[in-house]
Specification:
heterodimer, A: about 230 residues, Rossmann fold, 6-stranded mixed β-sheet, 3-stranded antiparallel β-sheet, 9 strands, globular, B: about 250 residues, mainly alpha, MetI-like fold, binds adenosine-5'-triphosphate, binds magnesium ion
Chain lengths: ~230, ~250
């Protein structure tokens, strides 16, 4: 298993501190980042994924064997290319250096696992929101990442689609991928989080197992967040 | 209003020359007059070649300036936008100077050939297609950047992906260039010379025939030119609409 840890991570934009000296070791198999809107969850995931360069602090990857860590990310608003669902997956696999015939095989397997086999040859961008969300997951899964970042993977989905996406995430996790995700759905956090990281105003306020966090949050902010009173 | 239009038509119809010209023009078009069709064919051939040549330059430049971050990028964009409104006669003059006997490309003997006209039109539409390409690809890049970077796509691969993904919008840009090339008269007049059967295209023929007072051919070519431009623009619209419905 790969280990990701961040040390005193800071990120400024336009003179504003968005991430304020966060240190975490992501040791759990499934970590859920919670926090109010604008807390810095998406920025934190982007920093870890390497899309943003931290202003200060460090991000450290450690793999068991001496191999490069494969990572993938599913964005809050997934972007699909103007081609078929299947072609979207093979495009991603080709970028990862997978040969054409293997890419096709892996893509079809991933589509099947996400329940999208019937849509393989449909244009990806005209699929429904939930289908696109699952397609984005399938694309990430096909890459067989060691770590998968998921930014609100079930935002805007109806309860059934939410369960479907959760099932897919579950399958990815059981296949051995470490999952780091954000959500505004507390039920989902309870279901899917081994570890809860609570962030507000760019600071890591609390870290606990899901059980602990929901039963007895240590910080007043986290307690208020769970209660649904948002004082900020 | 309708009364006024009717009176105008009646008055124009009463002028023999105009009436005869109109009828002759109709005759030329219906009979697909050979001399006229040769002019149309050369026009289309020159403008298509010019646009193909221009795409080879404009698409890479447009995509590179949209995606890449390299020194000189800003300068290229400024020049591209400034040259979009270049007056055709001035482009003609520049190409003329370059191709004239004393010019840098003089020894190639291209002046007053269709090739010279292709070069002039290509020079004219390259900034337009490049600037439109940059706009279209930059908008797509804005949307796709994080996703493509996340998948490990480098700048070059990203540019190719974006060109393919915006192919229908790019087609409208290319057709806009084609419309401008076909309708342009100043540049091809200067570098082509409007030589009968060699470098005479629709626009230069219209200009010449009108000044000679031979309105029939001018009218017929004018009608065909309008028809071509309308067809180009409507097909551009229909293609992009169909693509939007099919690919989202
Ligand atoms: N590119 C940017 N330019 C300016 N400000 C930004 C930028 N990206 C993020 N921010 C700011 O950083 C803060 C954190 O943003 P982030 O997207 O991480 O929030 P979040 O915790 O994911 O919120 P949400 O729950 O709404 O998704 C916000 O106040 C946002 O306005
Ligand atoms: Mg967010």
């Amino acid at each position: 298993m790969a280990h990701l840890s961040v040390e005193n991570l800071c990120y400024d934009i336009g003179g504003r501190r968005i991430i304020d000296s966060i240190s975490i070791e992501f040791s759990a198999r499934r970590s859920v980042v919670l926090g109010p809107n604008g807390a810095g969850k998406s920025v934190l995931l982007r920093l870890c994924h390497g899309l943003l360069v931290p202003t200060a602090g460090s991000i450290c990857w450690r793999a068991d064997a001496n191999v490069a860590v494969r990572q993938a990310m599913v964005f809050q608003r997934p972007v699909m290319l103007r081609r078929s669902a299947l072609a979207n997956l093979t495009h991603a696999l080709s970028l990862a250096g997978v040969g054409a015939s293997e890419a096709r095989e892996r893509a079809i397997t991933a589509l099947r696992s996400a329940g999208l086999e019937a849509l393989a040859h449909r244009s990806a961008r005209v699929l429904s929101g939930g289908e696109q969300q699952r397609l984005a997951l399938a694309r990430a899964w096909a890459l067989r990442p060691d770590i998968l970042f998921l930014d609100e993977p079930t935002a805007n989905l109806d309860p059934v689609a939410t369960r479907e996406v959760e099932a897919v995430i579950d399958a990815i996790h059981r296949a051995g991928t470490q999952v780091i995700m954000t959500t505004h759905n507390l039920g989902q956090a309870r279901r899917m989080g081994d570890d809860i990281l609570f962030i507000a105003r760019g600071r890591l306020l609390e870290r606990a197992s899901a059980d602990h966090f929901f039963r007895a949050p240590k910080s007043a902010e986290a307690a208020a967040f769970i209660e649904g009173e948002l004082p900020w | 209003m309708l009364e006024y239009v009717k009176r105008c038509i009646v008055r124009v119809w009463a002028i023999d020359t105009l009436r005869d010209a109109g009828l002759q023009a109709l005759e030329l078009m219906i009979g697909l007059d050979e001399a006229m069709m040769n002019i149309v064919a050369l026009s289309v051939q020159v403008s298509l070649s010019a646009v193909v040549l221009s795409c080879l330059i404009a698409l890479p430049i447009g995509a590179a300036t949209a995606v890449g971050r390299f020194p000189g990028r800003q300068a290229i964009i400024v020049v591209m936008n400034a040259f979009m409104g270049l007056p055709p006669v001035v482009v003609g003059l520049i190409v003329y100077l370059a191709l004239s006997r004393a010019g840098p490309l003089g020894p190639m003997g291209l002046l007053f050939t269709p090739t010279a006209m292709v070069l002039a039109q290509a020079l004219l539409v390259t900034p337009i297609i490049a600037a439109l390409t940059r706009q279209i690809v930059a908008d797509a890049w804005e949307e796709y950047r994080e996703q493509l970077q996340s998948l490990g796509s480098n700048g070059f691969r990203s540019a190719l992906t974006l060109i393919w993904d915006t192919r229908f919008s790019l087609l409208t840009a290319v057709l806009a260039g084609l419309g401008r090339a076909t309708a342009e008269v100043g540049a091809v007049m200067i570098v082509g010379g409007n030589i009968d059967g060699v470098t005479r295209v629709m626009t230069t023929a219209i200009a010449l025939e009108t000044s000679k007072g031979d309105l029939a051919l001018a009218l017929a070519l004018g009608a065909i030119l309008i028809l071509l431009v309308v067809m180009l623009n409507s097909s551009a619209y229909l293609i992009s609409e169909a693509a939007r419905r099919r690919y989202g």
